[in-house]
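# step 3/5: fold
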Amino acid sequence: MKFKMRKKTIIIAGTAVCIAVAGLLVVPRMVSAGSSDVTVSAAPVRMGDLTNYISVTGTVESMNTTYIYAEVNEKVKAVHVKLGDVVIEGSFCASLKRRTSKPRLLSINRP
């Protein structure tokens, strides 16, 4: 019976020592983590819309690209469309300077 009491005392003492060592290791870290300065910004409450902006970088590539080549060697006099305009087949896109006697208009035609 004395042996059982002694075993029980050793187990309780060992458990207490483990808890004490764990406390000595964990508590200083918790205290030092809580003592660092934290900057907080405060503002009055107001009604408004919530917006979320995401800033990303990258290259935008068109899914549909059309290359236009003139059949004549003339300079462009005026461009009749703006960037982003939707054009259809037969639309006049640009006027060319006359080098010959007839004026020419550049239009998009399917090959």
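# step 4/5: annotate
The beta strands are 76-79, 92-96, 105-107.
# step 5/5: archive (pending)
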